Amino acid sequence: MKHGHVVANGIDISYVEEGEGPLALLLHGFPESGESTYRHLIPALAEAGYRAVAPNIRGFAPSALPADGSMRLADLVADANALHEELGGDGNAVLVGHDWGAATAWGAAHTEPERWSRVVVSDVPPLAFFGEYASTYEGIERLNHFWFFQMAMADEVLAANDMAWVRQVMQDKWTADDYDATEDFEAARKALGEPARLRAAIDLYRMNFAPQEMGTPEWAARHAELWGEVPAQPTLYLHGTEDKSVVLDAEGLAAIGASLSAGSEAAFVEGAGHIVPAEKPVEYNERVLRFLGAKR
In this protein, which residues make up the domain named AB hydrolase-1 (predicted)? Predict the structure, then answer.
């Protein structure tokens, strides 16, 4: 894989890439890195004839910290669409997202649909479903890091003992019981080991789910404008059966699938937790390549 960087939406974004062909932009989530999350998909896409590019989102080393400190979803969405432009993407480009990258992909594909031919999302469903789940008893309990990160003490807790809290939550909560999350954690530590970068990552939650704003009409309108509607493009949605953060049953997955545009699919990945691309790469890659191959 080659390393590169480009200024997109005013941010110096670093990335890894492999292959030649239509752009496939791969967006990661918290607290990982693009290279780690998609370490199995990048070579598979390259072999299939894509230019697979996995950036580290703003604030995650070695990408730059935003000068204005903003980690709002609107800026992540603008970053993704700007990366399409700066990397020479065209109408055949595809967009792949996991976790925060999933929310970003929902928004980028909706707000500038002419840039993306197909969309692949895992682990965070469309806003209509995620928002409803996040306000239930189960959702509040399972997404408790959303609320913990609002506390000032979170900065110190996450940084303590070489990011031991992050290591433990990745292993015990965010991945399946039989998965070794060591490689994912090491990538997270590399990306967020500096205090300013760890703070930026926590600000994803503080700025997008601020307690003074969350649930207000203004907050709802802002999120609805970004990812309140599913993309018009064919979309593949994948979700781990062992996801302990966002728990879906068969009925919920079917409802998500029914809400997507024509040509879309929604499926479980058996035995995967919340980091589907890394945890079950064989099945994940097979489903992604089959879905993209239907276009090409």
Answer: 25-279
